[in-house]
């Protein structure tokens, strides 16, 4: 049995957020990380992946629970980790060598030993000859190599990486992934475990031994999948696409939340993906054109998109009852096919029926408008309500999307200039 390096025990994290009060970001997360494991953490945007990584690093303290490193609870920063950030986080006024050496700043080492280690790390990450260069003279890929070098120079037991490739173009990212994986697989670095946050399912399956998938609001571990394929992995191989499909289907499965959570006084307003009706319509048409059972992974590939780019739209198609997902394949439902084949007017009717069935908040908006004698209501009124549930920025976004859906379904209208929602009806002329 491999030794446990990191143990997360019942980690929760809450933040006090303006207008929202004390919000739970992470809930009861328990994970054990063993020597020799390269782990990916996946989850929807804003779910709390970075927060979890920072808790492992000891940069953020959990509200409940504890982090153990080598069996001991950490207090303050975790001495066993080195961290790589998405934004590189280099000091522009320091050279490559100085930036890398910075990783050793707090180590009780002699200057010549620090220098030897820094040069060796620079060599390892393929920046030999660039020791004296400044960040601005380097490409994005080279800058991230410096970021990785600064973490590796500490010879950490655990390398934590927060979306390390997502700020790079595709080719540069592929290159860097291969180089890093080579250091890891061929044991050229003494690192015993790598934990990587990523938004790319393909990256996770390409690199890691285990993929941990988080939910959102709050983040819980919804799946912990082992990927026991030998390296180097071939993205076109059947098994590879099977794993991608499996993870994809877990991530697109809508979480069924209990309507009334005990102890939760206020009824929650459901949060919807920000996908306008036009985009949803186009997507349903596309799936219909492509015939039955479309493999989303192949579809993304065909359009040179990340699979994850489809997540919100696929989720919306499911919410409206237009599509079902199984093992990474999307199928239109009967109503989905009807919607795709309908005329513009029929489409609006179908959309309206689905909205009334699955987006009850829009019905509530209509009811409020109906209850007013002039059938109109300031946008601000709804923003106020939404802010209590989602916070200021998200409240605006959520209202925008509901307005888009409500207008498409012709359930109400919206005056952009006056910022007023109103009912359009011959009997109730509304805007003076
Ligand atoms: N210091 C903080 N104070 C208040 N809220 C915070 C803080 N840090 C993070 N949050 C909130 O916690 C939630 C999770 O953020 P986090 O960055 O961990 O998510 P993520 O999954 O890494 O997101 P992304 O995929 O977009 O990078 C967000 O709603 C964020 O606004």
TrEMBL record:
| SUPFAM superfamilies named among the record's database cross-references | P-loop containing nucleoside triphosphate hydrolases
Which keywords does this chain's UniProt record carry? ATP-binding, Nucleotide-binding, Transport
Residue ranges of the ABC transporter domain?
6-241
Supply the InterPro entries for this chain.
AAA+_ATPase, AAA-associated_dom_C, ABC_transporter-like_ATP-bd, ABC_transporter-like_CS, ABC_transporter_ATP-bind, P-loop_NTPase
According to the UniProt entry, its GO molecular function terms are: ATP binding; ATP hydrolysis activity
> Keyword Nucleotide-binding on this protein?
yes
Q: Which domain of life is it from?
A: Bacteria
The answer to whether UniProt assigns keyword Cytoplasm to this entry is no
Q: Name one Pfam family in it.
A: ABC_tran
Specify the protein name. Answer: Nitrate ABC transporter ATP-binding protein
Q: What is the organism field in this record?
A: Sporolactobacillus putidus
């Amino acid at each position: 049995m491999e030794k446990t390096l990191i143990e997360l025990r019942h980690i929760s994290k809450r933040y006090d957020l303006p207008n929202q009060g004390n919000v739970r970001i992470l809930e009861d997360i328990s994970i054990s990380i063993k020597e020799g494991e390269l782990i990916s953490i996946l989850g929807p945007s804003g779910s709390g992946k970075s927060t979890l990584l920072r808790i492992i690093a000891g940069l953020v303290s959990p509200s409940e629970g504890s982090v153990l490193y080598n069996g001991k609870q950490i207090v303050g920063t975790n001495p066993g980790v080195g961290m790589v950030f998405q934004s590189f986080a280099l000091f522009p006024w320091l050279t490559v060598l100085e930036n890398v050496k910075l990783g050793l700043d707090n180590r009780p080492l002699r200057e010549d030993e620090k220098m030897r280690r820094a040069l060796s790390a620079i060599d390892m990450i393929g920046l030999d000859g660039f020791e004296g260069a400044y960040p601005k003279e380097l490409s994005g890929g080279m800058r991230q190599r410096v970021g990785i070098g600064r973490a590796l120079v500490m010879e950490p037991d655990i390398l934590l990486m927060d979306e390390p490739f997502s700020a790079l173009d595709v080719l540069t990212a592929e290159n860097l992934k291969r180089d890093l994986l080579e250091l890891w697989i061929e044991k050229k670095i003494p690192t015993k475990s790598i934990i990587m946050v990523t938004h790319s399912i393909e990256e996770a399956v390409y690199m890691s031994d285990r993929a941990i998938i988080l939910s959102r609001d709050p983040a819980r571990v919804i799946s912990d999948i082992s990927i026991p394929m030998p390296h180097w992995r071939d993205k076109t191989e059947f098994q590879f696409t099977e794993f991608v499909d499996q993870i994809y289907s877990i991530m697109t499965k809508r979480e069924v939340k209990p309507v009334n959570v005990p102890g939760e006084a206020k009824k929650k307003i459901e949060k919807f993906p920000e996908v306008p009706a036009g985009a949803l319509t186009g997507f349903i048409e596309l799936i219909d054109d492509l015939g039955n059972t479309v493999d989303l992974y192949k579809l993304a590939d065909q359009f040179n998109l990340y699979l994850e780019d489809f997540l919100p739209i696929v989720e919306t198609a499911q919410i409206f009852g237009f599509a079902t997902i199984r093992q990474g394949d999307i199928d239109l439902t009967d109503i989905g096919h009807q919607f795709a084949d309908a005329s513009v007017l029929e489409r609006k009717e179908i959309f309206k029926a689905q909205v009334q069935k699955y987006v009850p908040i829009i019905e509530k908006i209509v009811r409020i408008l109906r209850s007013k004698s002039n059938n109109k209501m300031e946008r601000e009124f709804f923003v106020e309500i939404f802010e209590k549930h989602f916070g200021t920025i998200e409240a605006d976004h959520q209202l925008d999307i509901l307005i888009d859906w409500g207008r498409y379904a012709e359930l109400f209208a919206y005056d952009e200039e006056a910022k007023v929602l109103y009912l359009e009806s011959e009997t109730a002329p509304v805007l003076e």
